[in-house]
Amino acid sequence: MSCELNYPYKVHGLWTANLGGCSGEATLTGKTAILKPDETTACTITLKFSPVKLVASQEGSDADCGFGHRVYAKGTYPNRSSRSPKFEMEK
């Protein structure tokens, strides 16, 4: 699993952004996925799936997760589909 995150903001009227990303193997139990990103020890990202939304939460600071300043993996997002995700195993 991988994630790409950003925190957009303006400096002197121009848009810029702090960036963050993570990757690792997630554990899926029921409708909850837990990711402990590679190369971190104090970061856990939890994804809870429902028919209408995805709720992401993060334990650990932006720095603990290897993200840029004020970049977090948390929020509530609408589902684009009610179908269960298909996961492919790498060979």
Characterize the structure shown.
The chain is mainly β and 91 residues long. The chain has strands at 2-11, 14-23, 26-29, 32-35, 44-49, 53-59, 75-78. The strands form two sheets. A five-stranded antiparallel sheet has the order 3-4-5-6-7, with no helix packed on it. Strand 1 and strand 2 form a beta hairpin.
- Spatial sequence of strands, sheet with the most strands: 3-4-5-6-7
End-to-end distance? 15 Å
Helix segment count?
0
**Any low-confidence stretches, pLDDT <50, length ≥5?**
none
Which tags fit this structure?
single chain; 91 residues; mainly beta; five-stranded antiparallel beta sheet; 7 strands; globular
Précis, in short:
The protein contains no helices and 7 strands.
Q: What is the element layout, followed by pairings?
A:
Elements: E1 2-11, E2 14-23, E3 26-29, E4 32-35, E5 44-49, E6 53-59, E7 75-78
Antiparallel strand pairs: 1-2, 3-4, 4-5, 5-6, 6-7
